[in-house]
Amino acid sequence: MLRILFSVLGIFSYSALAVHGRGCEDGAYDWSDKNECIQAFGAVVDQNAARQSCIHLDYFQFQGQLVQPHSLFENTQVATLVKGLGQNSFIGVEKSNNVSWTYVDGTELVYRNWAAGEPNPNHACAAMQIDGQWRSVDCDTAMSFVCSYPDNK
Q: Where is the C-type lectin domain (predicted)?
């Protein structure tokens, strides 16, 4: 399980420890308290291919989706994996109907971690940087991605 230790001394600082979860496949980690696993994939593909890859995790026998961080805690867990890849990675946030930013399942964003100057109004997909901040990107950009899927407990 990914655990975050917060120290509040006027500012937040954290360190993250990733531990393989009992209900997750090799290379995946327990995610928050959702009975889900998260896994980073280094394959460099566009956002549509990343979404389809998460949906069709056939070798895991699970249907997943691009990861959708709903809190600082969850975002930090995902950032640990993205940092391990060493490159920006697609997450499950997109501009719905070219109007507002939502999660890829169509639900309203309850958490945001945009980098300064983001999101760019000309882009419709989101990626997490290795520092955990989000950038808007062209959906045809090729990059790695992070999926979430139900654990097998």
A: 33-148
